[in-house]
Structures are given as structure tokens and as C-alpha cells.
From TrEMBL, chain B:
This is Response regulator. SUPFAM superfamilies: CheY-like. The modification 4-aspartylphosphate is found at residue 54. Coiled coil: none annotated. InterPro entries: CheY-like_superfamily, NreC/VraR/RcsB-like_REC, Sig_transdc_resp-reg_receiver, Tscrpt_reg_LuxR_C, WalR-like.
Length: 500, 219
């Protein structure tokens, strides 16, 4: 009873909103005429903003009242216009002094080309009708008082009884038009992948430039200096052996320094301990070298893919540096675990908190590093601490390393039966008997069951046996295939969810 | 009798260089191998007085050498091993020291440049002492620097502690720091008192005590 009363309340509220939408629809229609008739395009963004505010409310209500989550379908907004090297902003063939016009144009195009805008509009125009269905029960009491047996009254009563189902229908209808289509999900994903690819390429180029610069200014320069000193020693060795000896020790020092520089460089490219021991021990080594007290827990059964390992290592290293330098922390806890095929790392410190990726370039760098692998960084850092940073790297583990859930026992029995006994009905009791029957064998029935039956039952049993054998084999082959397919589909769905 | 040495190093040039260097200083190279399994076999069969081992060896090119050395020390407790590497890690140092039998060394390959010091380290390890790279010690001390008792040491005592942790005797420390041996003795006594360690004259024991202390301090 109580749920019914709340359902009535929700229906009335949604219905009232739907009726109010009539005014909004009228406004939209009124503005459409000057917009496209006389080219007053500047009316478009505010109208879209209005429609989107209304559909945002509808999505929220569908989620909280009707229990149907409706995801937001819009394409990501365009990035702000960037000036050209000469300081002007370009939009198509025009140049502008300020980014205002290019931005406006981009926004306009973004709204206009997004199919979700039009689906929103369609929903808005039809919503008063759908809301009308929700308000139908209101007619019931009125009808009772005036004409109890009029068909409309009966219809209204039926609608009142069916109200919970109408609400469900309303939720379905909202979801139908307001949730993203498969196409828009894919479009968003492709856009995101494009951006990630660009950032990864950028990041890699920057790394190579850094390495080139370090080699050029460091080890290379030192080797040149050593070569020159050796030349000088060659000159001196006969005339002034003491001076030559002094120079030799200088060369030795220089070679030591060059090695140290190379070692640091190598550590920045791919730390040796990571190559030698894998992520777990590399992070332990990192924790030992850190000025902070660090507790490391690692739950890894296999080594993740090498590039992923390296990305995770450098991200953790950066987080440790951040905690020590900005966070004022004393103790950090690093936790590395796997979650399906994903690698999950959590770094918590007892510092003062307030970390913000938009301010620090460090966190931004980590985000970029992880983005190349579809990784997601989550930061919780209230002022006063503690700071917890979690990142997930999907697809970190090889497919082969993954432990698939085994076949359920019942299905495994069917598979075993299929392979073990499928031959029996199919060949000796089915196909062979069929051949014997066609050839008209009259004696030597031995163990071919069908031939002992009376004549009219023989063919049906033969056909049944063949069918049974085929079914057993199909089941034996099909069940495992279906099982692994389902596991794969689950992983694929997890990705799509992450991708949003 | 000269010391018998087994060398494990995969790069031909470096291996030959090490052999020449050690033989020039009067050590006898019993075997020079280039992979982890060969090393383990040589160590267990030949029982050399000391082994000089590169961390990264074939076939896996990971920490094959270190693993072989640790395995050999499990089979032959106290087998002297000096590990060489292009990089030093506290993690590896701790693993080498973990069994507490001493007779281990862990040095950067660069230290080979200074032949006298390197051969000295080899002899020290062969004699059951330790030879830790200054860089490892610096890292160990840096990561425990905030700890209270360590902060109570005077700068001079810290210098002495660092050299002590590398595996040097009092007389070697006195030469390095241009102090009299009795002054060094006074400093070491001060360090032991401040860190709450039992004083001892045995070089190897001293290092292990210091490292055990540092380990415990990190908690």
C-alpha cells in the first residue's frame, strides 16, 4: 500500500513536470522559426542549454525515483581554442584577435552535431504525451462521480491499478531516448583513444629528447674530454711522467663520473632492478631508498607486461617523491594488487593532503603516463590529509596468465558425457544400423538394439539415436566455447564501463 | 699460497680484464665463467677462496648472478662472495647480508678502476670480512638519517660509522681520516654507546652489527 502511495506521488510529480514541458516545447518551437528562418543562430546555444537542463533533471529523477540509471550521452565538449604562433586565433578561414568567436563556433558546432541534442529535443516534445499517461488515474475519481460506467472511467481505473507498471514504462521511455546509443559510446571512446594516442606520442618524444640532451651534455662531453686528456698524456708521458700520472688519475675520475651519469640516466629510462626483479621488488627497492617510512604490500602472481610495469613503477616513484616533498608525510603505504586483468596500485600517505592534479605538474605527468595504457588515476586528498592515490591499469596481465573461472560442475559433467558416450548412439546404434537397414540385413543383429524392435519402431529409434549422438557432441564442443566467450565478454564490458 | 678466485662475468672484455687484474696482484683465477648455472657449479665444486660475481648474467639476464651466489652460500655457508654490479641497491645488500655469516662484498663495477682498493676488498671478503660500496652505505644512512639515535652522532662519528659499515678496520679508518688509531677507537666506542650496540673488535661483526642496527631502525 505504502509503495503504491509513493508511486502515485512520483507519477503525479513526473506528470506535472511533463505538463509544464508544454511551455518549454512551445518556447523551443517559437525560437526555431527565427533561428532557422532568419538566421538568428545565437539563440541556439541557450535553447540547447535549456533543453539539457531539463533532460538532466529527467535523468536524475529516473535514477533516484524510478531506479533506472540513465547515463549522460553527450560528446565531450571541444577544447578551448589555442592561439597560433603569431597570437591570432583561427577558425576555418578567419583569424580572430580573441578566442571568443572560435570558441563560440566550436561550441555551436559541438551542440549541433551531437545526435544526443536531437534525441533530447524529441524526448522533450513527446514527453507531455508520456506524462499524460501517468496523469490518467486522476480521471478516475472524477469519472466515478459523474459517469461510473463510462468506458473512459473504466480505462482510468485500469490505469490507476496499473500505475507502478506505467512508471516502469516511463523509465524505459526516458532511457530509450536519453541514454547514449552504442554509436555515441563508441564515438566517445574513439575520441578518447585518439587523444591518448596523441599524448603517448608526445610523451615518448619528450622522453627521447630528454635522453638525447642528457647524453649530449653528460657522458658524451665527458668522453670527449677524456680523449683530449689522453692525448695530452701521450705528449707528456716521456717528458714529464709525474704530470702524466696526475692527468691519468683525472681521466679515471672523469670515467667514474661518466659512469655515474650513465647510471642515473639508465635508472630514468628503465631501472635495472625493475628489469632484474619485476615490479614488486623494484618498488621495495624504491621504498628502501625513500626518506619516508614505507610499507609495501605486493600481491602479484605473475609479472605484468613490461611497458605497464614500467609505467606503474615511475608513477609510484613520482607519488613517493610528491609525498616526501609536498605532502610533508612521514609514512607511506604502497599496495599493489591485481583485479581481474587489471593492475591496481594504491599509495596512501599521512601527509597534509591538498594534492590537486590541476596545480602540480607531477600528478598531471602521472596521468599522462597512465593514460597511454588506459589507466585511470583517482585522488582523494582532503586538506589536512591523508592523501590516497589509486590507479588501475587495465589489461596489465597477459590473457594467458589469467585464471579463468572453471566450468560449473554440472556443465563439466555434460561435456564429459558428450565426449565419452556420444559415439555410442551416433555410430553403432545409429549410422551403422541405418546402413544395415538400408542394405536389408536380416540376420546377425548382435547388439544393434533397433533391429530387435518391431518394424514400425525401428526407423524412429535409429533417427532418435543419431540425433542424440549429434546433440551430445554439439553440447561437448559448444559448452566450453560458450563459457570462454562469456568470460571474454565480461572483460570487454568491464573495459567499456572503465572507458566512460 | 695465493687465493683461488672464481670469476663470473658475461662480457668478454670485462672478464678478461678482471682475470688480468687479479692475476697481476698475485691471486689465482681458478675459473672464469659466463653464466649463472656455470657459476653455481663452479662455486660448489671448486670451493674457491672467494668469488667475484656480476649480478646480471645469462641466460635470463636478470639477477642470475646474485641468485647463484645466494644459492651457493646456502649450499656452502660462509662461502666468500664479492658481488659486482652496474648499480647498487639496498635491497640486494640486505639479501646478501641477511644470513649473518659475513664474507660478502657488494661493489659498483667502477670500483675496479682503483685496482689496489679493489684487490684489498677481494682479500678482505676472502678473509671473512665485508666490503660494502660507499654508495650503498650512503643510501642506508640517508634513509635512516631522520632516526633519533643516528642524529645524535657527531659529524666525525658519522664518517667513522660510514667507513665501518663499508667493512674497514680501525687502522684503515685511521689512515683514511688522518686520525690516530686510538682516536678512532674512541669514536667507535662512542658510536656503539650511542646506538646501544655491544662493542666488538671483529671487523665483520662490527659491520653486521651496524647494518642490523640500521635495518632495525627502519622498522
Amino acid at each position: 500500500m505504502r509503495t503504491y502511495v509513493t508511486a502515485v506521488g512520483k507519477a503525479l510529480a513526473l506528470g506535472a513536470l511533463g505538463v509544464a514541458d508544454v511551455a518549454l516545447v512551445a518556447l523551443v518551437l517559437v525560437t526555431v522559426v527565427p533561428m532557422f528562418g532568419t538566421g538568428m543562430i545565437f539563440l541556439f546555444p541557450p535553447i540547447v542549454w535549456l533543453i539539457r537542463s531539463r533532460t538532466r533533471l529527467a535523468r536524475k529523477l529516473a535514477g533516484t525515483w524510478l531506479g533506472t540509471e540513465v547515463p549522460v550521452p553527450y560528446l565531450p565538449p571541444p577544447p578551448p581554442a589555442r592561439p597560433q604562433p603569431d597570437g591570432w586565433y583561427r577558425h576555418e578561414r578567419q583569424l580572430y584577435k580573441t578566442p571568443r568567436w572560435p570558441d563560440w563556433h566550436n561550441r555551436w558546432k559541438w551542440m549541433f552535431s551531437d545526435p544526443a541534442t536531437w534525441r533530447d529535443t524529441l524526448w522533450l516534445c513527446l514527453n507531455p504525451l508520456a506524462a499524460g499517461v501517468l496523469l490518467l488515474p486522476l480521471a478516475a475519481p472524477v469519472g466515478f462521480l459523474t459517469a461510473p460506467w463510462h468506458p473512459i472511467t473504466l480505462f482510468a481505473v485500469a490505469a490507476a491499478v496499473a500505475l507502478p507498471w506505467s512508471l516502469r514504462g516511463y523509465a524505459w521511455w526516458t532511457r530509450l531516448l536519453l541514454s547514449p546509443t552504442a554509436k555515441s559510446v563508441l564515438a566517445g571512446r574513439i575520441q578518447r583513444l585518439d587523444r591518448i594516442r596523441l599524448e603517448a606520442a608526445d610523451f615518448q618524444a619528450a622522453e627521447l629528447r630528454r635522453i638525447e640532451r642528457d647524453l649530449h651534455d653528460g657522458a658524451q662531453a665527458r668522453l670527449v674530454a677524456m680523449g683530449m686528456t689522453l692525448g695530452a698524456i701521450e705528449e707528456l708521458v716521456d717528458r714529464d711522467p709525474a704530470a702524466a700520472k696526475a692527468l691519468l688519475s683525472k681521466v679515471r675520475e672523469a670515467s667514474s663520473a661518466a659512469l655515474t651519469e650513465l647510471r642515473d640516466l639508465v635508472r630514468g629510462i628503465h631501472p635495472p632492478v625493475l628489469a632484474e626483479r619485476g615490479l614488486g621488488d623494484a618498488v621495495r627497492a624504491l621504498a628502501l631508498d625513500s626518506p619516508l617510512k614505507a610499507t609495501v604490500t605486493v600481491d602479484l602472481t605473475t609479472r605484468p607486461e613490461s611497458p605497464v610495469e614500467s609505467a606503474a613503477y615511475f608513477s609510484i616513484s613520482e607519488l613517493l617523491t610528491n609525498a616526501a616533498r609536498h605532502g610533508g608525510a612521514n609514512h607511506v603505504w604502497i599496495d599493489i594488487s591485481t583485479h581481474d586483468r587489471a593492475l591496481r596500485v594504491t599509495v596512501t600517505d599521512d601527509g597534509c593532503g591538498g594534492a590537486d592534479p590541476s596545480r602540480g605538474s607531477g600528478l598531471r605527468g602521472i596521468e599522462r603516463r597512465l593514460a597511454a595504457f588506459g589507466g585511470v588515476l583517482a585522488i582523494s586528498s582532503p586538506p589536512g590529509g591523508p592523501t590516497t592515490v589509486t590507479f588501475d591499469l587495465p589489461d596489465a596481465l597477459r590473457e594467458a596468465d589469467l585464471v579463468r573461472p572453471p566450468l560449473p560442475r554440472r556443465k563439466a559433467v555434460v561435456v564429459a558425457l558428450g565426449w565419452g558416450l556420444g559415439w555410442l548412439p551416433l555410430f553403432p546404434q545409429g549410422l551403422v544400423v541405418m546402413v544395415m537397414k538400408i542394405n536389408g540385413v536380416k540376420e546377425g543383429f548382435s547388439w544393434f538394439l533397433a533391429l530387435y524392435l518391431p518394424e514400425p519402431w525401428q526407423w524412429p529409434l535409429i533417427i532418435f539415436n543419431i540425433a542424440l549422438g549429434v546433440c551430445l557432441y554439439v553440447a561437448a564442443m559448444g559448452i566450453p566455447i560458450q563459457h570462454s566467450y562469456r568470460c571474454m565478454a565480461q572483460t570487454a564490458w568491464a573495459h567499456l564501463e572503465l572507458g566512460r | 699460497m695465493s687465493l683461488r678466485v672464481v670469476i663470473a662475468e658475461d662480457l668478454h672484455l670485462l672478464r678478461e680484464g678482471l682475470v688480468h687484474l687479479l692475476e697481476a696482484h698475485g691471486l689465482h683465477v681458478a675459473s672464469a665463467v659466463e653464466s649463472g648455472p656455470e657459476l653455481l657449479k663452479a662455486l660448489v665444486e671448486l670451493r674457491p677462496d672467494v668469488a667475484v660475481v656480476d649480478v646480471r648474467l645469462p641466460p635470463t639476464f636478470t639477477d642470475e648472478g646474485l641468485q647463484a651466489a645466494l644459492a651457493a652460500r646456502r649450499a656452502v655457508p660462509g662461502l666468500p662472495v664479492l658481488v659486482l654490479s652496474q648499480h647498487v641497491e639496498q635491497l640486494y645488500a640486505r639479501e646478501l647480508l641477511a644470513d649473518g655469516t659475513g664474507a660478502v662484498g657488494y661493489l659498483l663495477k667502477d670500483r675496479v678502476f682503483n685496482a689496489e682498493q679493489f684487490v684489498d676488498a677481494v682479500r678482505r671478503v676472502a678473509a671473512g670480512g665485508t666490503a660494502m660500496d660507499p654508495e650503498v652505505i650512503a643510501k642506508l644512512l640517508a634513509s635512516t638519517a631522520r632516526h633519533q639515535p643516528l642524529a645524535a652522532l657527531t659529524p666525525r662519528e658519522r664518517e667513522v660509522l660510514e667507513l665501518m659499515a663499508e667493512g674497514r678496520s680501525n687502522s684503515a679508518i685511521s689512515q683514511r681520516l688522518f686520525l690516530s688509531e686510538s682516536a678512532v677507537g674512541k669514536h667507535t666506542a662512542g658510536i656503539f654507546a650511542k646506538l646501544g650496540l655491544a662493542p666488538s673488535d671483529d671487523d665483520n661483526r662490527r659491520v653486521l652489527a651496524v647494518l642490523a642496527y640500521l635495518n632495525a631502525a627502519r622498522g
